[in-house]
Give the backbone structure.
Amino acid sequence: MSTTGSTDALDQLLTDALSPGRIPTAAGTWSAVERSLMVRRQHTGRRALLRVALVVGVLFLAGAATAVAGSADVRDYLSGRATMRGGQIKDGKVASLYPMPSFHVFQPGRLPEGYRLVALGQRPEPIALGPIALPRPDDVMALGRIEGEDVPPEVVQHALARAEHHLDTTAGSVLALVYVAGTLQTLELVEQSAGNRRLPGGSPVQIRGIPATVSQRDGRTVIAWIEQGTLVQLHATAGQSDAMRIAEGTQVSALAPFDTTVLDREPRGANPESVALSERVESVDRPSVSREQITERCGIWDPNLYAEDRSPTEASRQAFCVAQAALGRPASEIGGWATSRPTWGELAARLRLDLRIGPPSTTRVWSVQMELPQSRSAYVVVLDAATGEPYLTIRLRPGS
Amino acid sequence: MIEEANRDGELLSRCRAGDQEGFRELVEQHHERVYRVAFALLGNDGDAQEVEQEAFVKAWRSLDGFRGDASIGTWLTRIAMNAARDHLRRRRARGVWHRLLELRVGAQSSDGGLDGLAERERIQQAVRRLSPPLRDAIVLRYSAQLSTREIAAALGCPEGTVKSRINAGLAKLRDTLEAESTIPDQPPHSKEVRL
């Protein structure tokens, strides 16, 4: 074979071998890029936490190493705890919150028949770091199970949407409590420090002898008043007279300090209504989902998200998305979910699984637990924290 | 050329102003080139699509850093090459799951244009074994189908260097592939390499 003679053949061979069999369409490429841009935008946006707690009880998030710093705020920031949330809900009421709001929190003294607290949104005060104030991420969470019963996913989603709506439309630090009866009847308390704020416009009324306004917004009755330094706005799908009664029945709640050490621990004990996870393990499978399917649904796995945002929260959302894809069940079936970020060794010990079925024991993984109320089942999906690779889907028996 | 530069400039201005529609036009204009570069360096459709997407996201995020000393196409080519290299580094840590996936995708992408998957894979392997400077030049020429001038711009080297790298790469590939009898014997006529 002559050198010059083979050049043409080599040209052709290389062109054939190195050329892709097909080129993705421009529309398909743009669709994927646009989706990814949207995911990134969410990552960098101010909404940084959306989660659905599995049960009433201690609300938790992943732990963080303790940093050494002079002030508590700086220490919180450096340790990542500044972006963490905690709290406790007892008997349908918020009993404690972390971070603690800077204003008095009002809650209904007695809820109207059928209503229950389903979602909570909070934008805490920013952290003062010298001359600058670092905003903490917003937090929106909902309860997927209440008193041993699953909350229908559509109710959870509706309540989450309402809590997010209030955070989106309210400037400054704010707390939004969303109570739901049936599927669409809501009672929402939106509270913030009164500061220099004025009452919104509306017809003048009185709540407990305090000047208030009442108006109609988005098909809801809105009653607003300022009491003990808190601007309280009650949004109710109920009529004015019922809404007035509910407003009259609100009370200042003395929130208990939240034990933040729970944020540094594994979330065991965070689910007082369930049996130990290890006793719920029913079967273990390997996911058959492809990376293309995962990318299509969730965008590119970003292993640095956890560190970049100094928050486990958006990273949790990313892990949840991949876990959903790995599970291959429609989102509408998932009633509640929670994540943690242990090593595989730690998780295998908690679940009493054979270490050999997963990655090396020191591999950092995401554990995404999802409850599927309709099928009375639950799953834990184990993902590699660095790559997003789904290792295992673990089917659980009902927890309560 | 001037028209292209003007069009690039206008698109860039729109993109920098946050006009996502402008960025969509940019993606549509350059997606084939970016995909080809990614495919050539990674060897399978799944990874190439992922890197293509990643490259455009990186481009969107770094629009302000584009100084305009090269065409958008060249700039995107560089981004795609860097993204592909990052991807390769990450891939090494992914283990068996990825390798299995790659094999499956590779099998699906076999189009029958060559004798089969094994032959195609052997040629790709031979290209990947080239030193990075030679491999990049070959890949940009035969997969991304860039001109010598465009390759020079993407690699940041003179056109003469590109030509010599391609010739050197071809010589090495010829040695490797001849030993495996991949190149057909005695082509019907002689032809110079077009560079």
